[in-house]
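ugh ok fine here u go
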Amino acid sequence: MSALLLMGLSGCLGRGETDLLQARLREQQQRLTEAESQLQTSQRDLKLARKETEGLRVQLAQSGQPGLLPEQSDILVRASAIKINTMLTAGFDQDDSYGDDSLVVHFMPVDDLGEPLRLPGDIEIKVLDPALPEDAQTIAHWNFTAAESREKWFRGLFGAGYQFTLPWKAPPEHSELVVHVQLKPADGRSFTASHIVNITPPVVTTDGQEVVPAGARATLKPNSNTRPSFDDSSSWLKDDVPAYR
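structure:
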């Protein structure tokens, strides 16, 4: 009787473990089916994105514009913004005279993770002086085609990006300026970024006279552009010769 009872109990336990194992197998099978479905959806979306990118390249070729290489198409899809490098964007003095006679602008296209991308496109750079009346705030303006800007790509110690050294066509009057950058890649999008820079307005020489812009007068020391005069020892008298003890 005891033996029969043990056999019946073992059978019940065996059926319970089998049912649990089957339930787990069904659950794993369901998860696998869902994963395969998601993979198929992702692959379909990827094929669609590649097809759209290829169609964009064909449209560019038909319009007479330079076509994109496959790696450039990938960069175009990943690009999400442009970012101005605040460490490398500043006034620049090239002629060693008072003030910054040029402006250095450094920016980079980036993806969603902030990684720099060498994305080609037309570039527009504007400089605004917020201290001027609204209709006169744009004091400098430069445009570069995608072909021209390609040569401006720079990679250095503080990062990679497009770098432009831009001489002033007309010297700024004030030290605080706003730099506005716009990049237009081949897909028709437009990425923009702005940054406030502080420069030293340059001195303008007219008819041999140095004219300091209004915004720079407060910071310019008197006679800072003239060398101090020194007595020439050849004109000393006997009593002028220093005595050493």
